[in-house]
Amino acid sequence: MPVKDRDGDLDMLLEKIFNERGWDFRNYKRSSVMRRISKRLALLDCPSYGDYSVLLDRDPSEYDRLFSNLTIKVSEFFREPEVFARLCEAVKEDWREKALKVWCCGCGHGEEAYSIAILLSECLSFEAISNARIFATDIDHDALDAARKALYREESMKNVLQDLRDKYFSCADGLYKVKHNIRNLVKFGVLDIVRNPSISGVDVLFCRNLFIYFNKSLQAEVFEKLDYSLKPGGLLVLGKAEVIPPLFAHKYAPVGTRLSTYRKRT
Ligand SMILES: C[S@@+](CC[C@H](N)C(=O)[O-])C[C@H]1O[C@@H](n2cnc3c(N)ncnc32)[C@H](O)[C@@H]1O
Question: What's the CA-to-centroid distance between 125 and ligand 1, angstroms?
Answer without folding.
Answer: 30
